[in-house]
Write a structure and sequence with these properties.
About 30% of the residues lie in helices and about 35% in strands. The chain has about 250 residues and is α+β, with helices and mostly antiparallel strands. The strands form 2 sheets. Strands 2, 3, 4, 5, 6, 7, 11 and 12 form an 8-stranded antiparallel beta sheet that branches.
Length: about 250
């Protein structure tokens, strides 16, 4: 079962040319109707008071302009589709790369460690870190004190009894707490801001009509959530901060 690295990330299908195709079909039907009415009018017009030809010309001109607009839209949609295909091909180069992305769920193989990043603001007196398995059960937890800013957490893959866990998807939960153990709130009563990121190596790439998904085992990472990429072949860091989607969270989790 594929698990998303983010909560409630859905997949949808879209036909990029559907709108233009529908508009062109409707225009063709309207034009046929217009010609039928025009022919009927010409056949039945009063010979002593014929219809003005400039009216026909204006209406035909309007149909031509609408047709040109629909064709322009179709060409733009084709261009966008070509750009999407190029983006999909370039995504294949990410296989084997080490990535950082916004998300709280990462994939672990047996014997491996998992690395997460998290950012807490403002400083909190106590902080509890929990690792949940795919069923939602807490299998590991630890508590820190006086934590703020960007932090890195590496889990060795063992529960609190030192037992190594099976391969699977594991989620990091960060719980800011007050000194007395209650949920932390600042002077204004607002909770602490928490952003979480994952680090892993891409195994494969999934592509659909709306986004590209990089696979870490059975964890699916939306391409739009990447914050950093280190390509495997030349070990080159690539900044993906230019993507606007979730940019604020990405900056915090990077």
């Amino acid at each position: 079962m594929t698990v998303s690295s983010l909560t409630n990330v859905g997949l949808s299908q879209a036909d990029t040319n559907a709108a233009s195709s529908s508009s062109a079909s409707q225009l063709a039907q309207n034009f046929d109707t217009f010609l039928t009415l025009l022919t009927t009018q010409l056949k039945n017009q009063d010979p002593t008071s014929p219809m003005e030809s400039d009216q026909f010309t204006d209406q035909l001109s309007q149909f031509a302009q609408v047709e040109q607009g629909i064709q322009s839209n179709k060409n733009l949609e084709d261009l966008i589709a070509m750009q999407g295909q190029q983006r999909q091909l370039s995504a294949l180069s990410y296989v084997g790369a080490e990535i950082e992305a916004v998300g709280d769920t990462n994939w672990r193989e047996e014997g491996e460690e998992l690395t997460y990043k998290y950012n807490v603001s403002p400083e909190v007196p106590r902080l509890q870190l929990q690792i949940h398995d795919q069923s939602g059960a807490t299998i590991y937890s630890e508590e820190l004190t006086d934590v703020s800013g960007l932090q890195t957490f590496t889990w060795d893959g063992k529960n609190n009894n030192g037992v190594d866990q099976d391969a699977g998807a594991y989620t990091l939960v960060v719980r800011p707490m007050a000194a007395n153990g209650d949920t932390f709130t600042d002077e204004d009563g607002d909770p602490a801001s928490v952003a979480i990121g994952i680090i892993g190596t891409v195994d494969s790439v999934d592509i659909d009509d709306t986004d590209i998904y990089l696979r870490l085992g059975d964890v699916s990472v939306p391409f739009s959530t990447l914050t950093n990429v280190k390509l495997g072949a030349n070990a080159t860091d690539t900044d993906t901060g230019g993507n606007d989607t979730g940019s604020d969270e990405q900056d915090e989790a990077a």
